[in-house]
């Protein structure tokens, strides 16, 4: 089947089955051609919570589909490729979080949505890269535990007065390996370019940014800016979407390693197979889901 036929067949099945497709900003660009909603983790979880569809096909990674299932337990949630995991989410499990909590008794726990359902169930509130600062602030606590991402936790602390954010040791391999030298090299080539950074990057990188934000926030800031050149310090999918949407502007990807290989496991064929065969259905243990939902809903209400 060629691309046009694939897209037609997917759109037809979407109608027949009352399904929607949610696509993360790092997804292969072709997926946007069939996606109903495309954006960052926060935007997509909001769409998952409010949709009337019977089936949600999540073109993202495992924790995103799991979060959609927790928010909409009565719906069928499909992840088109079960190998689409997140290396950051795998950095902490529920037992490790319990130990971390025992080391800091009474300190509230913020968990980045890039985590498993059982880690969310052990946390007080979730956050995404779009709202981490507000979520930490909302706890009104002098100390906060933050898992699994040490960089996002440190970034939130740097933006707030009087809160100590005690971070776990996790990180995203795609962002963690970006260095200040990478930025300096690109700045020498494009001195007038604005530096747009995702907060999963180390502090030495975020401090060199003109703008720090989630993938959707970066895209919005670029579209609203009068600048013409941007160094994009996050995953390649953001550059591809910006090149598509803003042909009059120039985008420089920070380095060619900035690719989330598990996101890229999903192609149009996988979406078609997901709709044809109801695969792969994501399920979450009911007790864990109920506890995790509290942490997710608390986050959603903070930013309502
Ligand atoms: P967003 O919050 O921008 O969707 O980022 C999610 C993510 O996995 C970044 O690596
Ligand atoms: Fe996970 Fe990193 Fe991929 Fe985001 S870019 S989904 S944090 S591995």
Number of domains as seen in the coordinates: 3
Quick one: CATH class of the largest domain? Alpha Beta
Give the % helix: 40-55%
Beta fraction: 15-25%
Just name the CATH architecture of the largest domain: 3-Layer(aba) Sandwich
Catalogue the ligands: 1,3-dihydroxyacetonephosphate, iron/sulfur cluster
List the helices and strands and how they pair.
Elements: H1 3-17, E1 19-24, E2 37-39, H2 41-50, E3 55-59, H3 62-71, E4 76-78, H4 94-103, E5 109-112, H5 117-121, E6 125-127, H6 132-138, E7 143-147, H7 150-158, E8 164-167, H8 173-176, H9 180-189, E9 194-197, H10 203-206, E10 211-212, H11 215-224, E11 229-233, H12 236-245, E12 250-253, H13 268-277, H14 286-302
Parallel strand pairs: 1-2, 1-3, 3-4, 5-6, 5-7, 7-8, 9-10, 9-11, 11-12
Bound molecules: 1,3-dihydroxyacetonephosphate and iron/sulfur cluster.
Structure, briefly:
This protein is of the alpha/beta class.
Task: Characterise the protein shown here.
This protein has 304 residues and is of the alpha/beta class. It folds into three domains: 3-84 and 263-284, NadA-like (Rossmann fold, 3-Layer(aba) Sandwich), CATH 3.40.50; 89-172 and 290-302, NadA-like (Rossmann fold, 3-Layer(aba) Sandwich); 178-253, NadA-like (Rossmann fold), CATH 3.40.50. 43% of the residues lie in helices and 16% in strands. It has 14 helices and twelve strands. The protein has helices at residues 3-17, 41-50, 62-71, 94-103, 117-121, 132-138, 150-158, 173-176, 180-189, 203-206, 215-224, 236-245, 268-277, 286-302, and strands at residues 19-24, 37-39, 55-59, 76-78, 109-112, 125-127, 143-147, 164-167, 194-197, 211-212, 229-233, 250-253. The strands form three sheets. The protein has a four-stranded parallel β-sheet, sandwiched between helices. Helix 10 links the parallel strand 9 (194-197) and strand 10 (211-212). The protein starts with a helix and ends with a helix. The mean pLDDT is 97. It binds 1,3-dihydroxyacetonephosphate and iron/sulfur cluster. Iron/sulfur cluster binds at residues 61, 86-88, 114, 172, 174, 235, 260, 263.
């Amino acid at each position: 089947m060629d691309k046009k036929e694939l897209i037609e067949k997917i759109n037809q099945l979407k109608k027949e089955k009352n399904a929607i497709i949610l696509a993360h900003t790092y997804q292969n660009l072709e997926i946007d051609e069939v996606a109903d909603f495309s954006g960052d983790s926060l935007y997509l979880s909001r769409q998952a919570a409010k949709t009337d569809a019977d089936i949600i096909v999540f073109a993202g990674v495992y924790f995103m589909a799991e979060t959609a299932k927790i928010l909409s337990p009565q719906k069928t949630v499909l992840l088109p490729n079960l190998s689409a995991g997140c290396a950051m989410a795998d950095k902490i499990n529920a037992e490790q979080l319990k130990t971390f909590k025992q080391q800091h008794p009474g300190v509230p726990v913020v968990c980045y949505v890039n985590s498993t359902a059982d880690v969310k169930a052990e946390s007080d509130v979730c956050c995404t890269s779009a709202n981490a600062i507000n979520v930490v602030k909302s706890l009104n606590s002098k100390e906060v535990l933050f898992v699994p991402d040490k960089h996002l936790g440190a970034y939130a602390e740097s933006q707030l007065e009087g809160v100590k954010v005690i971070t776990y040791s996790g990180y995203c391999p795609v962002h963690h390996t970006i260095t200040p030298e990478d930025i300096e090299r690109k700045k020498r080539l494009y001195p007038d370019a604005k530096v747009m950074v995702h907060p999963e990057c180390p502090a030495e990188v975020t401090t060199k940014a003109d703008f720090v934000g989630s993938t959707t926030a970066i895209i919005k800031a670029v579209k609203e800016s009068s600048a013409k050149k941007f160094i994009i310090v996050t995953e390649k999918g953001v550059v591809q979407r910006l090149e598509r949407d803003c042909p009059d502007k120039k985008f420089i990807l920070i380095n060619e390693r900035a690719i989330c290989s598990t996101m890229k496991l999903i192609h149009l064929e996988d979406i078609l197979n997901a709709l044809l065969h109801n695969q792969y259905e994501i399920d979450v243990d009911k007790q864990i889901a109920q506890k995790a939902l509290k942490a997710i809903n608390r986050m959603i209400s903070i930013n309502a």
